[in-house]
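Encode chain A's predicted structure.
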Amino acid sequence: MKDISLDRIREARRLISPYVHRTPTFSSRYLSSRTGTEVVLKAELFQKTGSFKPRGAMNKLLHFSDDEKARGVVTVSAGNHAAAVAYATSIQKLSCVVVMPSSAPRNKIEATRGYGATVILHDDMRTIFDRVDQVRREHNATLLHPFDDPDVIAGHGTLGLEIYEDVPDADTVVVGIGGGGVISGVATALKQLNPAVRIIGVEPIGAPTMTRALQEGKSVRLEKIDTVADGLAAPYAGERNLEIVRQCVDDVVLVTDEEMIDAVKLLMERAKLFVELAGAAGTAALISGKVHNPGKKTVLVLTGGNLSLDRLKSWL
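Encoded structure for chain A:
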């Protein structure tokens, strides 16, 4: 956290503000009455490209040198980061290659191509970072890492600034964890603004990257990933992200895919918000009782809304 000060996060906001939205917050009377805590939803699904990812991607891109930009950008993602980098590079008129898992939702692959990126599909999520490194060397391109980078983390920290400004009296903030990028940024910002706030991370049982890293004291590459929440299916947690979680995050809990699916349907029915599984992880943790905050105020970060209609249809 010492490398990512509030000044650095505020500078990130100044740089990216022309390119991203300041997303709204909503109260939820139904969720509040059901869970016994005053619930506030941070609706990051209304962000550019439909997720929080442009915050970090754009901030990192704006810190690249002219030589790094000229060589083009390569990245790796199951979907939301892919679209965010494609969006950011299209604005800057840079070439972009994205390695995506073959199992990525078709809507996310098509969105990434729609922003002008070249997409390379890879069959094995466990070796996908090896594949992107190969592509980087082949193209002599500049890597934009999806989560383990201080500029990416600072960009995501702008989400924490907005939460504090809109809900300064929040007792608990609940955020999903994939590789750890968004929770690192949000926690870094909020703990500097209000050290008393609780930060709770949520992972799928089938992709417990941060849980394993905390248990073993180092980043661990998962041998098996078994979740349909593609936005939370990183094969490992970043080293920087792990260190920030150690310092700033109060607890990490696990939810099932079924609990996230139930949360997606509940948010559609009661809050009229179209949220993908990764974005509903915090809601799943709260309504399943894995996060408790009785009588207080809880912010649930709805990180994205790029839900496949075909996938949704199969759940209804």
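The domain at 54-143 is CATH 3.40.50.1100 (Rossmann fold).
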